[in-house]
Amino acid sequence: MAVLRTGLGLQAAITALFALVLLILPGELSPPLYVSLAGFAMAAILIASRDISAYLKVFISVYAAGYVLLAGSKALATANLLPATVSALLPPAFAATAAVVFALIVMLVSYLKPIRAITQITDPFFMNRDEPTQEIKMFRWFGNTEGRIGQRLVALSIFVSFLDVALTLRFNFYYRDMYNALQEYNADVFWYQVVWVFIPLAVINVALGMFDLYVDSSLHIRWRTWLTRSFYQRWLNDSTHYRIPFTGEEADNPDQRIQSDVNLFIQQTASLSIRLLSQAAQLVSFLVILWTLSRDFILPFTENTVIPGFLVWMVVAYAVVGTWLTHIVGKPLIGLDFRQEKVEADFRFSLARNRIYSEQIALLRGERAETVRLRTFFHSIIENYVDIIYRRIKLIALTFSYRQASAIFPLVLAAPSFFAKKITLGGLQQTSSAFGSVQESLSFFINAYITIASYKANTNRLASFNRAISKAEALSGAGYGLVQGNGTGPNVTASGLTLALPDGREIVTAGSFTLGKGAATLLTGPSGSGKSTLFRAIAGIWPFGKGRVDVPEGQSALVLPQRPYIPLGTLRGAVVYPSTTDQFSDEAIREALVAAQLPQLADRLDEVDAWDQRLSGGEQQRLAIARAVLAKPAWLFLDESTAALDEPSEAGIYRMLRERLPGTTIVSIGHRSTLHALHDTRIDMTPGQDGRFTPTELSGAELAK
C-alpha cells in the first residue's frame, strides 16, 4: 500500500507537470491552471496522510488515481492525442480537481473523534495479513492476504462510484446539448447526441451498475466473514467472555452484537462512507457548473438585478435550512433506535431462557410469572416503537415536503432568465439538473438521516462491545495483580494469595497453599467462603486478586462445575466436549458412558436433541463425568459435580474415577459428610477475624473429630 501511494504521488506530480507544459505552450493547447496546481496538492495530501486510518487511506489513494486518470486523459485530449469520440465522453477538466478536493476532505475528517471510533472497528480487517478465505471464491485472486483483498475491493468500489459521478456530469452536458438541438430544430445534432453520446453513456451506466453490485457484495461477505470470526474468536479466547461482565462496559446480548450488529455495521459503513464521499465529489463538480451558469442570473421578480452565483447561494441556503430542520426533528431517533435494539434483544433473550428452563418453570408452576415478565418486556418494545413511529411520521412529513419543493424550486429561480432569453432551453434544463444534483449532495444528510441515526446507534453498540472485549483481554485484576504461572514441581501451589469479589471485597487469603499430586483432596467450608472462587483462580479465569498461582507445566486440567454445559447437536458432540468428535472412537465413547452410569445412552450417539433439557440434572452431571473419563486429565477439579446424585451413585462414580484414572489427581468441593471417606486429604475454608477465609489442611486428629 505504501509503495502504491508513493507511485500515485509521483504520477500526480508528473501529470501536473505535463498539464503545466501544455499550459505554457503557444496556441490553443491550454488546460486550466488549476488542474496543474491540483496535481501538486494531491502529491502533498498523499504525503500528509501517511498516519491516518488504513480504511481512509484507500479512499485517498483512489482519488489520487482518479486525478491522474482524469487530468491525464483531459491533457491528452487537449493535445489531440485521443480520438474525438473518446474525448467527447470525458467529463469537464474540473472533475480532476474535484478528486483532489475530495481527498483533502477525507484527510481532514479522519481526525474527527466519531470517525476515529468507526475506524477503530474497520481498520483491523484492512490491516490483517491472514490468508484469503478459501470458501469465498469471489475476488479470491485479488490479493495474497484477506486485508489486501479488502483494500482493493474498497478501492474498486470507490473508483466505480467516482466513474458514476463522472457519468452524471457527462449526462448533464448531454441534456444541455440535446435540448438546445430541440430548441433550434437541429435534427443532425439531436441524432448525434442520441446515437453517439447517449447510447454509449447508457450502456456504460448499466454495466457499471451491475459491476458495482458485484463488487459491493464481494466486499461485504469477505468483510463480514473476517470481522465476525475475529469477534467471536476474541470473545471466546482465554475466557474473555467470562470476564466481560467485570469490565463495566455495556456489552449485553453479545449474540446480537456478533450476529446482527457486525452485519449492519459493515453494510452501513461501506454504503454511507462511499456514498457520502461520492456525494461530496458530485457536490464540488456541480457547484462549479452551477456557479458558471448563474453568473448572470436575474433575481426573480426584478428586471435587471444580477447576483453573481445566485443559484449557488440559493441551493446552499435551501439545503442548510432543510438540514437544520431535519436535525431538530430527527435527532431523538438516535436514542430511540439504540433503545429499540436493546429491548428487542432483552425480549428475545427472555424467550430463550423460558425454552432452556422449561422444566423448572413447569415444576414451579411459574407460567403466570413468566407471562407477566414477557408482557413487561414486550410492552417496552411497543412503547418505544410507538415513539419511533410518531418521530418518523414527523420526519417523513418534513422530508417529503422538502423533496416536492425541490422539483419546482430551481425552475422558479431560473424562469426569469429564460423568459428574458438570457439562457436557452438546454441551459434551463442543465441549470435545473445541476441545481438538483447540488441539492441532492447537500441534502444527503437530510435524506439519509434515519439511516445515519441507526448507524450511529449500531456503531455505539459495537464500539462498546469491542471496548469490553479489549478490557477483558487486558484485565489482570481489580487493582491487584493475580499472576498465573507454570511451576516446575508436581503440585499446584499458591503464594501470597488474596482473592476478591468484583466489588473489591476480599474473601480468601492464603500465605501459602498446596494441592499435592496424587492425593484426592476434598475442599470444604460454608457457602460463600470462596471455594468455587479458588477453583476459578487455579483455572486461570478469575481476574480479581493478588499473589501467584502455579500449576505444573505440561499437565492438563479439567474443571467440572455443578451445572455442566451441554452444547447443541448430537449426543456424541456433547460427551466429547470440549474435544471434537473425531478424537475418540465410538467404542471409547460408549465405554465412558457406561462407566458414568449412563448405559441407556450408549447407542444414541448420533441423535440430535436438546440434551440440556432431555437429561435430568443427575444425568447431565454423569455425562460430564464421562467427559473426564475420555479426557484423562492430570488434574480433575469437581465443583459439587456429583451433588445431584444419590450417595451410593456418588460413591460409585468416585470409585470408578480412582480405578480408571489412576494418574489423575482429584480435587473436589462438596458438603456431604459421605465424601470424606472418598478422599485422602481434606482442606477446610477456615473463617478469620477479618471475615476472610483461609484454606487450611486438616490433621489426622481434626479429621477424626
Report a brief summary of the structure.
The protein has 705 residues and is of the alpha/beta class. Helix content is 64%, strand content 9%.
What share of residues is helical? 55-70%
Q: Overall 3D geometry?
A: elongated
Note the total helix count.
24
- Major sheet summary line: 6 strands, mixed
Radius of gyration: 35 Å
Q: Strands of the biggest beta sheet: in what spatial order?
A: 6-7-8-4-9-10
- Give start-end ranges of low-pLDDT stretches: 18-29, 476-480
Strand content of the residues, in percent? 5-15%
By secondary-structure content and strand pairing, the structural class works out as alpha/beta
- Our measurement of the CA-to-CA distance between the termini, rounded to an integer number of angstroms, reads 75 Å
Please count the beta strands (DSSP E, at least 2 residues each).
10
Mean pLDDT: 82
Topology of this structure?
Blueprint: H1 2-24, H2 33-48, H3 54-78, H4 84-89, H5 94-109, H6 113-127, H7 146-183, H8 187-236, H9 240-243, H10 254-293, H11 310-330, H12 332-356, H13 358-363, H14 367-419, H15 425-442, H16 444-447, H17 449-474, E1 481-487, E2 492-500, E3 506-515, E4 521-524, H18 531-539, E5 545-552, E6 557-560, H19 571-576, H20 586-595, H21 611-614, H22 617-631, E7 635-639, H23 647-660, E8 665-669, E9 681-687, E10 693-697, H24 700-704
Parallel strand pairs: 1-5, 4-8, 4-9, 6-7, 7-8
Antiparallel strand pairs: 2-3, 2-5, 9-10
Helix pairs in contact: 1-2, 1-3, 2-3, 2-5, 3-5, 3-7, 5-10, 6-7, 6-17, 7-8, 7-10, 7-15, 8-10, 10-15, 10-17, 11-14, 11-15, 12-14, 12-17, 14-15, 20-22
